User: Fold this.
Amino acid sequence: MANLLELRNVSKTYTQGIINPKSTVALQDISLTLKEDKPTIMTVAGESGSGKTTLAMLLLGFITPTTGQIIYRGKDITQLTGEDKLAFRREVQAVFQDPFAVFNPFYTVDHLLTVPIKKFKLAKTKAQARDKMDEALTAVGLRSEDVLGRFPHQLSGGQRQRINVARALLLKPRLLVADEPVSMVDASLRASILETLRNLQRDHGVSIIYITHDLTTAYHIAKSIIVLYRGGVMEAGNVDEVIKSPQHPYTRLLVDSIPWPNLNQRWGTDTIKARETGGSATGCPFRSRCPVAMDKCAVQPPLFQMHKTQAAACYLHEANPKIAAERLSELLPV
Ligand code: ADP
Ligand code: MG
Assistant:
């Protein structure tokens, strides 16, 4: 079975400053696989500063890994040229947090949707272009007559975010990278936008990487989850198992801070500090905050697999078999 996307031991370190350069490890040794013929919704969860947007930017090819490779349909995305590059740009789409960010305030919604149609030559005639727009808008639960011809400020936040999704959908993507797509949308509209994303996966065969700092939305939308802390995978597996029965002390802390059944609660609005290189970059990144930290946590724990579909990078589980970081995807349900 061919892979749609593969991350092989991807790390990203940002270096800032020339005279006194400071390095930040934003992402460390992440491996993931999405299968071509099994569209799924995978959540990447973590507090602010845990490396989620860095992962999104890497997946989209906006930044390059410091080490490791990102392979899209068999080819390293940093090496893509010509047709392959164009196909990647079309097939991997993004929806970002700020529904305003991609809108130019002086252009109407029509313009926003027409640009990709022209750029990727998706229609031969005006009528065909209009049909494509109608189709994409319908798929996200909007009616053309309600939104076409309008300026961004004449739309609600929920409508704007739906238009962003429609814009991505026009291109018939295979993968949608959604970086906190509902965190700036009114709570009352969140559920319906998430439902729209789920329909894309179910009815249009789009795989979705759903990035969030909100475990409750992850629980509702995703099949699998990867929990990041300071750029490292703390726990991963089936979303039900991980949220109902978290095994890593960090995931437990996150789950305990959700006052169920208040589904709109968020956690971790303070940015956690990323790892700076040097002594502190080794060992479990969570150990300074961990209530059960042990001496051996000074050495990075591997992932231990406690169930078929759940693993945690924590010595509390060292009685279980280890699973190599590269094989993480094998335990994620699709
Ligand atoms: P998240 O999306 O989970 O909040 P980010 O990926 O934005 O996390 O950031 C991860 C870490 O990398 C943070 O410590 C952040 O300050 C740092 N970082 C992100 N982008 C840059 C950049 N362009 N230059 C330097 N450091 C960055
Ligand atoms: Mg972010």
